[in-house]
Amino acid sequence: MGDKEKLMKLTKEELAVALINISIELRKYRNPNTPPSSNKHLKPNTFGKKAKKKAKRGAPFGHIGTNDNFEPETYKDVDACECPKCHGKNIRDNKILKRKNRDIEEPKKIIEEGALIHFKHCEDCNLDFIPPQNTTPLQGNFGIILMIHVIFIKFLLRGVLRKTALYLEASHAFEITPAALNEIIRRVAGAADKEYSEIKERIRKAAKIYIDETSFSVLGRNQWVWVFRTETDILYVIRPSRGSNVLEEILGREYRGLVICDCWRAYNFLEFALLQRCWAHLLRKSKELLSVTGIHLHKRLTELFEEIKRYNLSSHTPEERLIKYKEMTAQLKEIIDYYSKYPELKKVVNYIKFNLENWFTCIKVEGVEPTNNFAEQAIREPVMVRKIIGAFRSETGKENYETLASLIASWQLKGLDLKNELKQMLIKNLCFC
Questions:
Q1: Domain assignment present for 42
Q2: What's the pLDDT tens digit per position in 53-67?
Q3: Considering only CA atoms, which of 406, 395, 320 is closest in space to residue 364?
Q4: What is the dihedral angle through the alpha carbons of 189, 190, 196, 197, rounded to the nearest 10 degrees?
């Protein structure tokens, strides 16, 4: 019996219960705090009116495709001087096929080598030093390149330790235990402590920050991954709290910059900061209103959001921006005053009302985004890790992740060479006293 036949046999009471259960399940995936990008299967058709049914999405505009143009420096000559069947020498070319390809070298086996590191003393200036060309860590039995390889598998490919060990054995004939891999990650994270602290300091001094948070289980208990993103840095911190104490720890009570965030009440702690509340969150909430008045409210809010985007396309003086800010805030107040008489809209109206002064900071101050999309983009990575590993099984693992994920994300944001940055950081902090 199919699902349709089963539903037909249910009583009205059973159908009502089934509908409630389905609604509860759907709320896990479709709610105001979950961006549409997280649920691609719920997205509407984006192919356009003329697209064929079940057509492929296609490459983004400007995509280079699979036929990347390049010219090899040399061509190897694949030729023969005799027939493979009769071994005759009377052979000629029918044609010459010119082919180009890109490949990588065969993975090399792990090198087992030692180093005699000379700790030197200068009799002239009394300086003790290690030769600057040293690239061998002073502790442990793992080299810099192996450490980089493990970190890339773990953080760029989101590899789990057991499969990372299998890969190293299959590709490099190197047997290593998951516990040893964990030790490599711990050692690299320890070497990155200084750089992680420097990111924290830059975040604290930043003039504009995008902030978001999401849950993550640690040792079976719910904790929170916080992301702080600026133009040049991404900082992850994982704490047991979703409260204002985390903001005080990272930014300080006196922080006076710009903060783009959602309407979580903890951000009210930043009383000296200028807050911009996220319009994407607001529009997702209003879109869920299915009554006639709710649909109309969503339309009015969408029109305001479009006006924000149009206004910010052109340049304006600070005085003009302040006037426009006051006008749009007054306009929003009129809207919520009107719709506050409808009980079914109370939740969204209060959501707007409690943060009324913070919806148009992006109008008052140039260069401020009306949404918190930058922070939501940055927090996708720990969300993906959460889906893969489920939970951190130690406080050390949690701390290793927040340190290394912050460094890698910040280097990527700046467009730096990840391999070179990681290599130089490890050499500086592990190969010298």
A1: no
A2: 555 666 666 666 666
A3: 320
A4: 160
Q: In this structure, is residue 372 part of a structural domain? A: no
Do 55 and 47 form a contact (C-beta atoms < 8 A)?
A: yes
27-62 burial string, b = 16+ CB within 10 Å, else e? eeeeebeebeeeeeeeeeeeeeeeeeeeeeeeeeee
Could you give the angle at the alpha carbon of 190 between the alpha carbons of 184 and 192, nearest 5°?
A: 105
Backbone CA torsion sign across 305, 309, 314, 315: positive
Question: Could you give the angle at which helices 161-172 and 178-191 cross, rounded to 10 degrees?
Answer: 100
Here the tokens at position 191 are 């070497």
Over pLDDT 70: what percentage of the chain?
85
Give me the number of domains the chain comprises: 2
Give the rounded distance of the alpha carbon of 251 from its chain centre. 21
Range of the domain at 318: 279-364
Give pLDDT tens digits for 324-371: 999 999 999 999 999 999 999 999 999 999 999 999 999 999 999 999
- 112-160 tens-digit pLDDT: 889 999 999 999 999 999 999 999 999 989 999 999 999 999 999 999 9
Report yes or no on 352 lying in a domain. Answer: yes
Encoded amino acid at 223, one letter = Q
CA pair distance 320, 61, nearest whole angstrom: 36
